[in-house]
Amino acid sequence: MTLNGDPHITGIELLGKVIVDDEHTHTYLHHLQRLVKADWLVMNSDQNNSYLGQPPYTFIHAQCEFGDRLHEVLGEGSGPAAAFTGNEQYLEAMFAYLNNVSANKRHPLKSAGAGDKPDKRPADPALKRLEERARRAKVALPAVALRHRFGLSIYQHLCLLGMYGQQEGEIDYDFSDPKYVVRMFSRGIDAR
Predict the structure, then answer these.
(1) Is the pLDDT reported for residue 38 higher than 90?
(2) What are the b/e assignments for 68-89, b being 16+ CB within 10 Å?
(3) More confident residue, 153 or 59
(4) Phi, psi values for residue 169, rounded to 5°
(5) How far apart are the C-alpha atoms of 163 and 157, rounded to whole Å?
(6) In this structure, is the dihedral angle defined by the CA atoms of residues 110, 116, 120 and 122, taken in order, positive or negative?
(7) Given this model, what pLDDT does residue 50 score?
(8) Are residues 68 and 144 in the same domain?
(9) Domain of 23?
(10) Adjacent-strand bridge partners of 42
(11) Whole-angstrom Cα distance, residue 157 to residue 7?
(12) How much is the pLDDT for 163?
């Protein structure tokens, strides 16, 4: 999904194109929620935005994508859960994910303290979709195979991809400095 050529569209930007009367924004948000439930849209919202409450209000700052159902109707085979067709496509999607996460200063995999177990937290929906697309791939994805070959955790895998993306000029975040990497994945001095 793009708006003026930009693939990173938030709910408020999408609504800005259709809203006639700002006083009815809440009504449009509920319509977005219906489109999400019908799988026409996918909204990657950060549930940690407590000041926004619950969906559909979290959709204001959420990233929007076309849903699988909309891609089916359009006859396209490239929905959010469509299989990756090559390693380059996988890397581009992971770089976009890392750029989005680093730009928002909120990482869904961030641990808060020593007792915060990453495997006990709900998976980030956007990352979960990327992993599902990688599982569906009919071609070899060397970047994914690397993770399995060396038994990398999700943190290690994202860090490795981040360093590669930074080297290639695809990612702006500084993955070469350990203090920035630690800051991206943990909150508070105990976790760091």
Answers:
(1) no
(2) bebbeeeeeeebbbbbbeebeb
(3) 153
(4) 80, 15
(5) 10
(6) negative
(7) 46
(8) no
(9) 9-74
(10) 65
(11) 24
(12) 94
Residues 160 and 165: their CA atoms lie apart, in Å, by 9
Q: Are residues 53 and 91 in the same domain?
A: no
Number of domains in the chain: 2
Contact 25, 32 (CB under 8 A): no
Can you tell me the mean pLDDT for 155-162? 91
108 & 156 share domain: yes
Tokens of 138: 């009919």
Each residue of 89-145: pLDDT tens digit? 999 989 988 887 777 665 666 666 655 565 555 567 778 878 888 988 899 999 999
Residue type, 64: C
- The angle at the Cα of 96, spanning 188 to 134, to the nearest 5 degrees, equals 100
C-alpha 56, offset from chain centre? 18
Cβ atoms of 44 and 61 within 8 Å: the answer is no
Domain co-membership, 66 together with 93: no
In three state form, how does the secondary structure of 14-50 look? Answer: HHHHHCCCHHHHHHHHHHHHHHHHCCCEEEECCCCCH
In a domain, 23, yes or no: yes
- The token pair at 78 is 């490239």
Round to whole Å and give the CA distance between 192 and 177: 14
For residues 63 and 139, membership in a common domain is answered with no
Average pLDDT across the chain, whole number: 75
